[in-house]
């Protein structure tokens, strides 16, 4: 793929096509003619070397396997591009900025974001401070509790009142293994996942509400376990020392692999993308300091 010849308008067209699953509906949404959208789809198929959209049974087009993988990543890229184009960093002098930004985030986000964020902030805005808290379920938080955060980051399905949601980054699940016998294999099977004991990482009282349990059950996986804990480091340590399995996000798994010497296996089925979003107050949408910090967050995770 030659990125120098890539027209970003094609990606916008692809995003709308994947959303509407119809050349007709996409042309209406984009204010383009149907032949123009059909031509764009032909170019996109050549670009990605994939059909992307094929005839379906419900009268609409069906996404191919590759298109399903592309869609969440494409939405994230387009949103971040809009943010980068629409923000002028010169509005802020970060070396003189003296503010404290409060972030609420889920556990799996913190390990990915915080080390890189500290390094970035320390280099460009030495007087800025960050106060981070772990947030598990925003649906159970009051408006007063939510209001204390400048930004909330995670996989939360609902958008709180008076907050705006934007795509942040996409992740997926893998299996970390401390089982020495199993680690001699190249791949892990559904039978392995059912036969070997797990440590379950849960951020809520009811572990069936965790990010991954419904996905595992739908693929006929019912974990054997004795331990459920809400501390990711403790879960990874247990997996290593007691030869257990641990389902975790890929970015976090790569981090734990280095520390605890665990092996990372891809799951034996298609793991759906985990779309992490960033939430911020609508009243802050024109605040230069908040805009600058969101710009930094997008830079760090890109």
Description:
This protein has 302 residues and is α/β, with parallel strands linked by helices. It folds into 3 domains: 3-86, Winged helix-like DNA-binding domain superfamily/Winged helix DNA-binding domain (Arc Repressor Mutant, subunit A), CATH 1.10.10.10; 94-171 and 275-301, Periplasmic binding protein-like II (D-Maltodextrin-Binding Protein, domain 2); 173-271, Periplasmic binding protein-like II (D-Maltodextrin-Binding Protein, domain 2, 3-Layer(aba) Sandwich), CATH 3.40.190. It has helices at residues 8-20, 23-30, 34-48, 65-86, 107-124, 143-147, 190-195, 213-218, 232-241, 250-260, 288-301, and strands at residues 53-55, 61-63, 100-105, 129-134, 151-154, 163-171, 173-177, 197-201, 224-229, 245-249, 263-266, 274-281. The strands form 4 sheets. A 5-stranded mixed β-sheet has the order 4-3-5-12-6. A 3-stranded antiparallel β-sheet has the order 10-7-11, covered by helices on one side. A two-stranded antiparallel ribbon has the order 1-2. Helix 5 links the parallel strand 3 and strand 4. The longest helix is centred in the N-terminal third of the chain and has 22 residues, at 65-86. The protein is globular. The chain starts with 7 loop residues before the first helix and ends with a helix.
Q: Tell me, what's the shape?
A: globular
- Intertermini distance: 20 Å
Number of strands: 12
Strand content: 15-25%
Mean pLDDT: 86
Please give the CATH class of the largest domain: Alpha Beta
Count structural domains: 3
- Specify the number of helices: 11
**Biggest sheet details:** 5 strands, mixed
Q: Kindly identify the CATH topology of the largest domain.
A: D-Maltodextrin-Binding Protein, domain 2
Measured as a percent range, the helix fraction is: 40-55%
The strand line-up of the biggest sheet is 4-3-5-12-6
């Amino acid at each position: 793929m030659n990125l120098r010849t890539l027209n970003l308008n094609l990606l916008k067209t692809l995003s709308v096509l994947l959303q509407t699953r119809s050349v007709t509906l996409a042309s209406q949404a984009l204010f383009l003619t149907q032949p123009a959208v059909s031509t764009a789809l032909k170019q996109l198929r050549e670009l990605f070397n994939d059909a992307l959209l094929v005839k379906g049974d419900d009268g609409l087009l069906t996404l191919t396997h590759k298109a399903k993988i592309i869609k969440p990543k494409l939405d994230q890229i387009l949103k971040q591009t809009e943010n980068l184009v629409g923000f002028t960093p010169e509005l802020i002098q970060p070396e003189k900025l003296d503010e404290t930004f409060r972030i609420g985030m889920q556990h799996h986000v913190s390990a990915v974001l915080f080390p890189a964020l500290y390094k970035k902030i320390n280099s460009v805005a030495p007087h800025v401070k960050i106060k981070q808290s772990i947030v598990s379920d925003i649906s159970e938080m009051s408006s007063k509790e939510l209001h204390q955060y400048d930004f909330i980051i995670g996989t939360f399905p609902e958008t709180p009142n008076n907050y705006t949601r934007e795509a942040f980054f996409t992740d997926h699940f893998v299996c970390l293994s401390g089982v020495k016998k199993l680690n001699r294999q190249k791949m892990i099977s559904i039978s392995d996942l059912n036969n070997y004991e797990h440590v379950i990482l849960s951020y809520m009282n009811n572990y069936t509400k965790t990010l991954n349990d419904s996905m595992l059950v739908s693929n006929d996986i019912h974990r054997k376990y004795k331990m459920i804990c809400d501390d990711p480091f403790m879960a990874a340590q247990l997996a290593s020392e007691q030869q257990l399995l641990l389902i975790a996000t890929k970015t976090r798994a790569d981090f734990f692999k280095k520390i605890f010497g665990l092996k990372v296996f891809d799951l034996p089925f298609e793991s759906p993308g985990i779309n992490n979003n960033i939430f911020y107050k609508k009243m802050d949408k024109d605040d230069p300091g908040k805009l600058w910090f969101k710009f930094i967050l997008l830079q760090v995770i890109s």
